[in-house]
Amino acid sequence: MKQLLIALSLAMATGLGMSACAVSSGQSTVGQYVDDATITTRVKTRFAEDKEVAATRIKVETLKGVVELSGFAVSEAEKQKAGDIARAVPDVKSVHNNVIVRAPAS
Questions:
Q1: How many other CB atoms are found less than 10 A from the CB of residue 69?
Q2: pLDDT tens digits for 26-61?
Q3: Complete domains list, the chain, with CATH
Q4: Which is nearest to 68 in space by CA: 97, 47, 37, 34?
Q5: Secondary structure (DSSP) of 22-64
Q6: Which residues make Cβ contacts (< 8 Å) with residue 26, sequence separation at least 6?
Q7: How far apart (Å, rounded) are the C-alpha atoms in residues 26 and 38?
Q8: What are 98's strand-pairing partners?
Q9: Do the beta carbons of residue 39 and residue 89 sit within 8 Å?
Q10: Distance separating alpha carbons of residues 65 and 80, to the nearest angstrom
Q11: pTM attached to this predicted model
């Protein structure tokens, strides 16, 4: 019984330690990590709903409310629209639009 309790305690401690890894990637709290994940999801969802922005070509990452866009757009208008969409999401502090405009291969 005592060995079982020790094993369970070690498993729980390991699990707690692993869950903190995501927070140590730059977020100050678990709440901030969740907020950033929510922002990322909202931006991606709005991209998917928009007919001008290809959600599959543009990557979204969020850290402390700052959204970074990367990937490729087929026009300057698509790149601009992606940035505008991201800026319109609640709790976004700023947007770094690093999307590269590249004409599609013919």
A1: 22
A2: 556 666 667 999 999 999 999 999 999 999 999 999
A3: 26-101 (3.30.1340.30)
A4: 97
A5: TGGGS-SSHHHHHHHHHHHHHHHHHHHH-SSS-TTTEEEEEET
A6: 63, 64
A7: 16
A8: 70
A9: yes
A10: 19
A11: 0.70
